[in-house]
Amino acid sequence: MCNKQGAEVLATEGVRGYDYKLMAEDFIGQAAQRPTKKQACFHAVLSFHPHEKPEDSRIVSIAREYLQEIGIANTQFAITKHTDKAHLHVHLIANMVNNEARSIKDNHIGLRGKKAAQQLTLKHGLIVAERKNLALTHQEALDQSEANRYKIYTAIMESLPKCRNLEELKARLKTYGIEVLYKFKGQTQERQGISFRLEKDVFKGSKVDRSFSLGNLEKTLSQGQRQNPSQAMGATNPIPLSGHGVSNASNPAGQLAQELENIMLQSTGNLLSDLMKPEYVPQGVNPDLLREARKKKKRKRLR
């Protein structure tokens, strides 16, 4: 996080921030006090909208609040700013073994982090990014894996409006060199998930974009067929990928992408509203057990 171009350590606690190798030694030394702790390193990225350029002091304040909100306190941490992409972002590294050699609880930390980010966005009046904007993405600044993920995203966005089903989508993506992979339930042919492979990189659909999970793709294709079946029937050849963002004004692919986004918003609902819905999981309860209990209750009612 520290030893790359465009990286600047803004603040640290309990570690030597002037040398990343010494910083690593400090983190490792404290984590060693709890050798049974499997995940002793916490890492998160807080990204700002490309139009936002907050001062360093404000970034540090937001990052500190974020750590406090998710229960990471009285421990070592480092806040590092990166400016290698169009959007300013900071990497947070914290020790999950605190200054008293006690383990910091990490149950449901992903959910807590999501809620904290939402609250801080509203509290500090930051711009909410409801969905990807490729026009603001500098793909040339991405590493190869991230660049491939964005290529997959662009290819799906350009192809979906021309497809009536997943088989047609699979055929169109093949022309881009993208392979569609399915996850099946047990030994059956029932599809449970979808992934996309480009070169050596494989991404789950939801990792490319939350609207590209198997369920959401099926909803989008179904919705698109109902709204404009003639468009899918009269589809043309895919438009080649470019290294630049989609422009609706001059790029036909951009127009198709905008139409697809409108369909997605109607079929899956406003993304921001979905994110702001409260999610509650009792502390210390395994979510898998809760799901199993609900299934058993449903089966019992059916009997």
From TrEMBL:
Pfam families according to UniProt: Relaxase (PF03432)
InterPro entries reported in the protein's UniProt record: Endonuclease_MobA/VirD2 (IPR005094)
Region (Disordered): 221-252, 282-303
Top-rank taxon: Bacteria
Annotated Basic residues bias: 293-303
Domain annotation MobA/VirD2-like nuclease: ranges: 3-126
Ranges of biased composition (kind: Polar residues): 221-234
The protein's name: MobA/VirD2-like nuclease domain-containing protein
